[in-house]
Amino acid sequence: MNTLVNTIIVGAGQGGLSVSYYLKQKDHHHILLEKENQIAASWRSHWDSFTLNTPNWMVHLPGTNYQGNDPEGFMTREEIIAFFEDYLHEHQLPIKYGVTVTSIDPGGAGYYVQTDQGTYEAVNVVIATGFYQNPKIPAFHKNISSKIHQIHSSEYQNSKSLPEGAVLVVGSSQSGAQIAEELHEAGREVFLSVSSAGRVPRRYRGKDISRWEEAMGYYRRTVDQLNSLQDRFSSSAHTTGKDGGHTINLHQFARDGIHLLGRVDNGKGDWINLSPNLHENLGKADQFEAEFITAVDQFIKDRQLDVPEETLPQLTDGFEVEEIPELNLLEANIRTIIWATGYSCDYSCVHLPVFDPNGRPIHWRGVTQFAGLYFIGLPFLHTGISGVIAGVGDDAEYIASIILQRQTRKTIPLPRLQEVL
Description:
Elements: E1 3-10, H1 14-25, E2 30-34, H2 41-44, H3 77-91, E3 95-97, E4 101-107, E5 110-115, E6 118-127, E7 134-135, E8 149-152, E9 166-170, H4 174-185, E10 190-193, E11 203-204, E12 207-208, H5 209-215, H6 250-256, E13 259-261, E14 264-268, E15 271-274, H7 278-302, E16 326-328, E17 334-339, E18 343-344, E19 373-375, H8 389-407, H9 417-420
Parallel strand pairs: 1-2, 1-6, 2-3, 6-19, 8-17, 9-10, 9-17, 10-13
Antiparallel strand pairs: 4-5, 5-6, 7-18, 11-12, 14-15, 15-16
Helix pairs in contact: 1-8
């Protein structure tokens, strides 16, 4: 016999927890289904020294704000995990751990949700599994010599966990740049394949860059204000919150001895092939920063703000690096490749035609064309911070309001909530 529930939320990350919070406030019976056996599983998988890139004052979920004494600091991995554990304990949200959803099909009261522990029947289903699910590694990595240890950035823990020898990090957005910096500081020889990700200073004219982004309305930009829908998925500019936060500049990497390379296009045996786009990508990062600080300067001028002048260092070391078309990994003593090449989304359990040709959900602010089916936690679901802790709450409140409006028109008989759990 199927278990009847008004709303099932698939995934107990920040999006799922936020929707659950608003539903519980209205005594709407629902369940969070989490495939892992503990909360904050995705955060636990980050490397040992991981910190948030957004400052602590931006760490808030519905009903809970940052309460510490370091609002301009950056939470460590352990502090983030504790934040989620405390949130769940404080609000006593209805969660079931260790439940894997295998399929979601239309039918019954609205949807059949098949799991490895039985079938649920729900009026509403919220997909809160996030956007970054499957590590993405180019297929040609299988052709590279077995003498080279290869991992995705999601598997990296610390420098000591890697084989001896030099390390090639492929990708220079947030994760790749931070891992390359950490490995270099640990005394490893590092090669970094540079992508087209932008750069922003950690602080500028007396404020953390996030303060300027908030003041200038960057976080309030909605998806319809973007130049194209593809901009929703642009790589994050490289920066870091480690050691109190500082700017990451690839030219400084070159000055410090990190070997910069163009994009890795192919690989076979001991060799990798490289695009001649290193200088081009460095130029893009420089331009990204220049355009951003120009916008900040104009904002300050327009509002006649009394803040100090600042001139950022203009480094060019990366442009002095020779572009090479190929590299012999073993001759360069490279024994490890870390693929910081992002993730692909996977919603294969959802058996409805609700996706674009790239497998991404078609929605407006998380609401799909199928009544009762929602998504949350995606980049630019609605605003520039929809996909992060600081912004997911607004989207959750909106989705919960739609669910609660539907409840007045269509409900199903429910057992007592503790009987479901």
